[in-house]
Amino acid sequence: MSSDNKGSELKPNTINFNDELDKKGAFIRVQSSFRNFISSSPDAEFKPEANRYHVYISYACPWASSVYHTIQFKGLQDVIDVSIVDYLLESGGWHFSEREGSTVDKINGFKYLRQVYELSDKNFNGRVTVPVLFDTKTKKIVNNESSEIIRMLNSEFNQFAKHPELDLNPAELQTQIQEMYDFIYPNINNGVYRCGFAVSQEAYSDAFEKLFNALDKVEDILSKQRYLVGSKLTYVDIRLFVTLIRFDCVYVGHFKCNKKQIKEYPNLSNFVREIYQMEGTKKTVNFFHIKHHYYESHRTINPYGIVPVGPNIDWVNEPHNRTNL
Fold first, then answer.
1. What is the mean pLDDT of residues 311-322?
2. What is the pLDDT of residues 84-99, one digit of tens each?
3. Long-range contacts of 38-44, Cβ-Cβ distance < 8 Å, separation of 24 or more
4. Which residue of the set 56, 59, 117, 193 is catalytic?
5. Is the pLDDT of residue 25 over 90?
6. d(Cα 266, Cα 260) in Å, to the nearest integer?
């Protein structure tokens, strides 16, 4: 074997995101394909029912984890089950296994998540993403846009929830929540991806600057109040958390977001500690999946799929000080 091929036998046929780049080499996320809603309205196709719906998630994906987080916080585990894809994203898309906390497809028995999409739409030829909210009665995907799934789980299943009193999108705060989300999503949630998948210095530098300016702003906000829109936990806090919990162990190194680690921000780090230590959160966080997905799946960034041993992230278990606000 020639030296030019050394290590090639170790490389799986992993996915690339070249079709999601603009002319400047900046990453542009594709839009979700299924946008239906679960509703109690008499004419609704998808009505809230116990054990009718199933969610497909990835522990690695922050968007999917925020949906799983909502299931846990609302106490919907007994009426909405989940299937968890394998951490390795190859060219065939997300697949199912039973390694390291992954599961089989509990509903359809499929090998690939793409088969769930094709079951719902035989002509589907778009990007297969997680999360997926699936209706087991009609065998259709209801929705694969995480922010919309969160809102449905928050409001449409309260009759089945163990914690119906928890409202992650209260009416009186919805304007503030949306404004905050419109800031958090492009600059932080998607900002780390725009750093990591940039293929030009210009695109990377622009995303990097916007990311850390946004983190500085949120650090300041959280120095004055416990959560992003005040004293009440909302879904925008979950959306921020799922990016921050991945930041030090993946985004700093893999996506070159290396100006500062989250543990260096006094308020952001304590915010992460508080949410991580809330009941139900740890079930949604699998650091093995997180690290091995990014470092093994993104071979354009990390050609040999070497997964770093560090960093030490035990700081998330240390006591937080958020009750002082």
1. 97
2. 999 999 989 999 999 9
3. 38/133, 38/142, 38/152, 38/156, 38/157, 39/156, 40/156
4. 193
5. no
6. 12
What distance in Å separates the CA atoms of residue 107 and residue 1, rounded to the nearest whole number? 44
Q: Which residues contact 233 (CB under 8 A, 6 or more apart)?
A: 168, 227
Cα–Cα distance measured from residue 180 to residue 171, given in angstroms and rounded to the nearest whole number: 15
Q: Is 112 a catalytic residue?
A: no
The answer to whether the bond into 311 is cis (omega within 30° of 0) is: yes
- Residue 80's φ and ψ, nearest 5 degrees, are -135, 105
Cβ atoms of 195 and 203 closer than 8 Å: no
264 and 305 Cβ atoms separated by less than 8 Å = no
Beta-carbon count within 10 A of 303 CB: 13
Residues 6+ apart with CB under 8 A from 195: 204, 207, 208, 211, 251, 255, 256, 257
**Single-letter code of the amino acid located at 121:** D
| CB neighbourhood size of 175 (10 A) | 10
Residue 228 tokens read as: 């992003």
Letter string b/e over residues 32-52, b meaning 16 or more CB atoms within 10 A of that residue's CB: bbbebbbeeeeeeebebeeeb
Catalytic site includes residue 61: yes
* Rounded Cα–Cα distance for residues 203 and 194 (Å): 8
Confidence at residue 23, expressed as pLDDT on a 0 to 100 scale: 62
Residue 235 predicted with pLDDT over 80:
yes
Q: What does residue 2 show for φ and ψ, rounded to 5 degrees?
A: -75, 160
Q: How far is CA 34 from CA 124, 152, 187, 264, in A?
A: 11, 14, 25, 39
Active-site pick, 53, 56, 61, 181: 61
8 A C-beta contact, residue 118 and residue 124: yes
